[in-house]
């Protein structure tokens, strides 16, 4: 896979996973608000935070791949050394 393909895969997957994790955090806090057992809402909250942090990791990887794409693969329109001299 090229850096561009990785960037276009990881960044959207990270955003979706972050959104899912945020929804799960709300779900876990709703369990606590509705007086579910401590074990139930703590385990739900832990799982939600794992999903949320996985999303942050995926998105961060996507950003890194985007930077690598810009540095290595993207054709340069105007490079300092390729400027015609008069």
Automatic annotation (TrEMBL):
Transmembrane segments: 7-29, 41-64
Species of the source: Hymenobacter gelipurpurascens
Protein name stated in the entry: Uncharacterized protein
Domain of life: Bacteria
UniProtKB keywords: Membrane, Transmembrane, Transmembrane helix
């Amino acid at each position: 896979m090229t850096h561009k393909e990785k960037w276009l895969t990881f960044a959207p997957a990270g955003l979706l996973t972050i959104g899912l994790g945020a929804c799960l955090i709300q779900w876990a806090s709703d369990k606590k608000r509705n007086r579910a057992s401590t074990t139930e809402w703590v385990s739900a909250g832990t799982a939600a935070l794992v999903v949320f942090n996985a999303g942050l990791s995926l998105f961060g990887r996507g950003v890194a791949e985007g930077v690598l794409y810009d540095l290595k693969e993207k054709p340069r329109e105007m490079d300092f050394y390729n400027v015609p001299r008069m």
